[in-house]
Amino acid sequence: MKPVASFTRTRYALAAFLLAAAVYTITFSGHLSSPDSEVVLRTAVSLATEGSLAIEPIQSFSEFGYGKAEDGTLYSVFGPAVSVLMVPAILLSDATLPLTEPLFKPLINRVRFLVYYPSSYPEHMRRLFALFVNMLIMAAAVGVLCAILLRITTPANALMLSCMFAFGTFAWAYSRTLFSEPLAIFTALLSLLMLMRNTPKSLAAAGLALGISCTSHITSVLFIPFYIVFALWPNTLSETPADSEIPLLRRAITFIAPLAMMLILLGVYNYIRFDNPFETGRQGNYGEFFLNPTPWWALLVSGNKGLLWYAPALLALPLFFTRALRRPTTVVLLLGIVLLRYVFICVRNDWSGGFCVGPRFLLPVLPFIFIAAGYAAGKLSPRRRWLALATLLVTMSFMTMIVSMDPLMYYSIIRDKIAADPQLQWKMLWTSFPLSMPANLQNNLPTDFLFVWALRTGHPLWLAAVGAVMGLLYAAMKYLGLPGNTKETKS
Fold first, then answer.
1. How far is CA 108 from CA 59, 77, 101, 470, in A?
2. 94 sits in which H/E element
3. Please, what is the average pLDDT of the chain?
4. N or C terminus of the chain: which is more exposed, having fewer CB within 10 Å?
5. How many domains does the chain have?
6. In angstroms, rounded to a whole number, what is the distance separating the alpha carbons of residues 445 and 460?
7. For the segment 298-345, what is each residue's pLDDT rounded down to a tens digit?
8. Is 470 within a domain?
9. Helix 155-167 vs helix 121-149: angle between axes, to the nearest 10 degrees?
């Protein structure tokens, strides 16, 4: 494939980020909808205001999300990276309260705002600011995915595949949360992009980014064996020849040292809290390995946890298979990343991820499927191009139904309906979230979008929201329309 100029890669990747940020802004919820997110937020608030990692238990969830140290102090069981990243958002929220109060205060009377945490304006704004940052992180992950795809396929294909991930999978739903998946995905993809650049500095940056991904969600350690292969033998990943000036041992040290540093810091973080570098706070209450046929098919096709419903854009990938597969070793390694995680999840009794949108534990590997597809994606015929666009619009409409509501509200309704049934989990698998949601909620299907609520109530915030979104869309289109630099650079 003819290399895409560096300037062209930059503007297309930026356009993908802006498009994702625009759509995610429209569907921004502005409030927390899970105790997991609340625990992550409380850790960030504690760090920002007290310089401490200790948290208070959540009302109605007093036994969830924290571990108890020997002195009785409570700490989060979740990875620290997201909480640390949210500290500036908390400080900015507190510093701008006098400016934001006239805009946002009328909107915090929504019923779904009054969940889990004290009903006060400063607390609401802390959560809104933190959620907005996490939304931008997921949009940035879309931009990085596009930058990766631009190195292996055409700009049009790269942008389309990136948008399919952004709007045709449940990545969209997680842009509205404080779960660790957005940061884990962003840093894992950034690490892969740095490995593609194939320089000493980018090797070190790749190791650091992968380490941050591991401190976001510990299951990112499953990426490490494959990334080591990419780092030590760059021809398996990069379109450019390996730099003969970098000996194999130096490559290994350059990549592994910052990765190891982040893992050591994670161990220190655990030791400070629980006197054990390997104790995250669950204190024995971890998932266990088991053999059961249910997760093997449920994670693929069940209505509640199947990729079929939560990542329908995957069904459109064959449209892009227009040429012989390039770099088959790379594709095997990328699909190996997906397969290893799938098997790992299927043999654990916590495979469902609990009450959350879709097969949450599979979300971090979805981008690798789109990247693998890019190696078989050539120039599309007009018919295929229109089919791909139509598929994107259909899947986007389908995913909007999932994104438009608070998942825990839905699950609480379903759970109450079938709570007396001993086959609860089995029925949950076949209680399809996307298709049965309107029926189960009857005529009360909510639209859990902050800016739509502002529009309904006649609040001026919606004008600002529309202006911001239109500005982002205009910027994305302008960057797509700029004349590219004809000078080609190395991929």
1. 19, 29, 10, 25
2. helix 81-95
3. 83
4. N
5. 1
6. 24
7. 899 887 788 988 999 999 999 888 876 778 889 999 999 999 999 999
8. no
9. 150
Secondary structure tally for the chain: helices H, strands E: 21, 2
For residue 117, tell me if it sits in a domain. Answer: yes
How many residues would you count in the chain?
Answer: 491
Please tell me the distance from the alpha carbon of residue 288 to that of residue 101, in angstroms, as a whole number.
47
* Beta carbons within 10 angstroms of residue 347's beta carbon: 16
SS3 content of the chain, % helix, strand, coil (to 5): 65, 5, 30
- Cα pseudo-dihedral 366, 371, 375, 377, rounded to 10: 80
**Can you tell me the distance from the alpha carbon of 176 to that of 324, in angstroms, rounded to the nearest whole number?**
38
> How confident is the model over 267-272, as a mean pLDDT?
92
Hey, what amino acid is at 82?
V
- Structural domain of 225: 6-435
Per-residue confidence at 26, pLDDT binned at 50, 70, 90? confident
d(C-alpha 171, C-alpha 189), whole Å = 14
Encode 151-219 in three state secondary structure.
CCCCHHHHHHHHHHHHHCCCHHHHCCCCCCHHHHHHHHHHHHHHHHHCCHHHHHHHHHHHHHHHHHCHH
pLDDT, tens digit (0-9, with 9 covering 90-100), for 16-25: 998 899 899 8
**Angle formed by the axes of helices 224-232 and 181-197, nearest 10°:** 20
pTM: 0.90
